[in-house]
Amino acid sequence: MPVPEPPDHEARFTALFESTHRPLLAYAVRRVADPGDAADVVAEAFLVAWRRIEDVPAGTDARPWMFGVARRVLANHHRGSRRRLALADRLRAEVVETAPPPDRDAGDIEQALARLGDEDQELLRLVAWEQLARDEIALVLGVSRATVRVRLHRARRRLADQLAALAAADDVPRVQRVVPTGHVISGWAPARPGTEEA
């Protein structure tokens, strides 16, 4: 009886890269200050994928699996950045500014989003920016679909409350700010099919 040939790891990895590298790069660019750091995050994520190619799910589950890997790499990146910049932050805190910082206009949603907790922000961004459905978000975050449904409902309610508070205070500028990467921070992409499912 012939021995089956081992799977072509290189072909699987190439197919994975071709189908996910652009959305992963967009995911990372939106979450780091320097686009060069985004490239490093994506490269590290694909290094993990290469080492664990047997663990990569088949079909459409590969995309959210890669988002989950990138999310963990990004968390490590942020922790490292905080350590590297600790001294600079201390020095900046001691500097007395004689002039106020420049006004940075932000859209309604961006300003309201910034008032939410990190988990709410990430969940809403996965829906709006990455256009992931609930089952995909569950895979990215490592939680159940039911948990995503509850958290998403609460995050949207908190976002709506913040938007209402900003409108009531009449302190919301009506200008969209474009960051150097070319992304409009307050622009929200249309949801993919399945994102708004009950």
Distance N terminus to C terminus?
50 Å
Radius of gyration, taken over Cα atoms and rounded to an integer in Å: 20 Å
CATH-level-2 architecture of the largest domain: Orthogonal Bundle
How many distinct helices? 8
Q: Remind me, CATH topology of the largest domain?
A: Arc Repressor Mutant, subunit A
- Beta fraction of the residues? under 5%
Helix content: 55-70%
Shape descriptor = globular
CATH class of the largest domain: Mainly Alpha
Mean pLDDT: 76
Q: What's the main sheet like?
A: none
Query: Strand-and-helix sequence, N→C?
Result: HHHHHHHH
Q: How many beta-strand runs?
A: 0
Q: Could you name the ranges where pLDDT drops below 50 across 5 or more consecutive residues?
A: 95-105, 175-187
Number of domains: 2
Return the structural class. mainly alpha
- The H-level CATH homologous superfamily of the largest domain, spelled out, is Winged helix-like DNA-binding domain superfamily/Winged helix DNA-binding domain
In short:
Belongs to the sigma-70 factor family. ECF subfamily. With 198 residues, the chain is an all-alpha fold. It has helices spanning 9-29, 35-51, 62-84, 86-94, 108-114, 118-128, 134-141, 145-169.
Characterize the structure shown.
- The protein is mainly alpha-helical and 198 residues long.
- The protein folds into 2 domains: 7-96, Rna Polymerase Sigma Factor, Chain: A (Orthogonal Bundle); 100-198, Winged helix-like DNA-binding domain superfamily/Winged helix DNA-binding domain (Arc Repressor Mutant, subunit A, Orthogonal Bundle), CATH 1.10.10.10.
- It has 8 helices and no strands.
- Helix 1 runs antiparallel to helix 2 (35-51), helix 3 (62-84) crosses helix 7 (134-141) and helix 7 packs across helix 8 (145-169).
- The longest helix is centred in the last third of the chain and has 25 residues, at 145-169.
- This is RNA polymerase, sigma subunit, ECF family.
- InterPro entries: RNA_pol_sigma-70-like, RNA_pol_sigma-70_dom, RNA_pol_sigma70_r2, RNA_pol_sigma70_r4_t2, RNA_pol_sigma_r2, RNA_pol_sigma_r3/r4-like, WH-like_DNA-bd_sf.
- Residues 16-84 form the RNA polymerase sigma-70 region domain.
- Pfam families: Sigma70_r2, Sigma70_r4_2.
